[in-house]
Amino acid sequence: MEATSGYKDYVAGLMAGIITVITGHPFDTVKVKLQKYNTEAGGVKYKNGLHCATRILQTEEVKGLYRGATSSFIGMAFESSLSFGIYSQTKRFLQGEIDGGKPQPHAIVPSAAFGGAIISFILCLSELVKVSDARVPNFLLYLEYHLCKVVFQCRMQVQGTDFMVPKSTRFRGPLECALKTVQQEGLTGMFRGGLATLLRESVGNAVFFSTYEYARYFMHLQLKGASSESSQLIDVGVGIMSGGLGGIAFWSAVLPLDVAKTIIQTTPEKNHSKNPFSIYRRSGLRGCYTGLGPTLVRAFPANAAAIVAWELSAKLLGIRRVQ
C-alpha cells in the first residue's frame, strides 16, 4: 500500500469488523456452546454443530444465534479496526515502499503478530460476555463494557434456554457479568484466558495475513492481463478466495488455543488450570478440535466478507495497492 493518512487504515478495518459479525456471529455461538459442553466429562453432548444450531433455533429462535450480537458489533468493529490498522501501518513501516506487490514475509509476519498481540489485551477483557443483548446506552457504559468483554463474552454465550444445557447463573447483561466476576474472582478474573488469547491472536493473525497475502498475490498473478471492465469483479473474487482461505488457515492453526480459552473462561472453579496446553491432557486431540465444523463453516464466509469489505473500503478511502 502506498503512504496514506493513518486513520483510513483503521476506518477500513472497522467496516471489515461490522461485516464479520453479520456473517459469522451465529456460527460463533454454536462453536462456543460446543466447546463448553462437549468437552465436559459426563453430561449431555450435542451430536454436532447442526444439532446444536437446531436446538438453539427450537428453544430461542434466530435471536438465540445472535445472542450478544449488539455488543459484538461494537467490540468487533473496534478490534478489527485496530487489527487491520496496526497490521497495515506496521507492514508499511517495515517494508517501506519496496513492495512491488510481492509478499514480504519479514514484514507480514511480525506486523500481523504485533497487531494480534495488541488486540488480545482487549479481547481478553471482551469474550466472556459475547452473546449478551444488553444495550450500551452511553459512552461510560461502553467503556465499562469494553473493560470486561472477552471473559464475559463466553459466559453469556453459553447461557440459553436449551434444556440440554445445565442451568447456570443468568446475567442480565455484560456489566452485571463483570461485577459478579470481580466480586467472586477479583480483578484477575477479568483476565482469565489471557495467555491463550495472546497466543491465539498473535499466531493466528500471522497465519491469516500470510495466507491472505500469498493467495492474493498468486491469484492476481494468474489473472494478469484481464480486461479492465472485469477488474473490479476479479478483485472481489480474489478477496473472497484469499480471505476465506486465510480464515480457514487461521482456525486450523489455533482452534486448540481457542477451545482452551473457552474452557478457562467459563469454568467456575477458581483454581482451575489456566495453562492453555492442558486441554490436550484433559480432552485429547479430538477435544482440542471441538467445534471445528461450525468454526470452519463460519471461517470462510466471515473472513471472505471481512477482506472484501476491507479492500473495498480502502479503495473508496483512496488507499491504493500495487497488485
UniProtKB/TrEMBL annotation:
Bilayer disposition of the protein: Multi-pass membrane protein
- The question of whether Membrane is a record keyword is answered with yes
One GO process term, biological-process aspect = mitochondrial L-ornithine transmembrane transport
Keyword field: Membrane, Mitochondrion, Mitochondrion inner membrane, Repeat, Transmembrane, Transmembrane helix, Transport
Main localization category: mitochondrion
Tell me where the Solcar repeats sit in this chain: 4-93, 125-218, 234-316
Family annotation (Pfam families) = Mito_carr (PF00153)
Q: Which domain of life, per UniProt?
A: Eukaryota
InterPro entries (alphabetical)? MCP_dom_sf, MCP_transmembrane, Mitochondrial_Carrier
Record-linked SUPFAM superfamilies: Mitochondrial carrier (SSF103506)
Keyword Transport among record annotations = yes
Instruction: Fetch the PANTHER family from UniProt.
Output: MITOCHONDRIAL ARGININE TRANSPORTER BAC1 (PTHR45624:SF42), MITOCHONDRIAL BASIC AMINO ACIDS TRANSPORTER-RELATED (PTHR45624)
State the family named in the UniProt similarity comment for this chain: Belongs to the mitochondrial carrier (TC 2.A.29) family.
Protein name as it appears in the record: Mitochondrial arginine transporter BAC1
The species this protein belongs to is Solanum bulbocastanum (Wild potato)
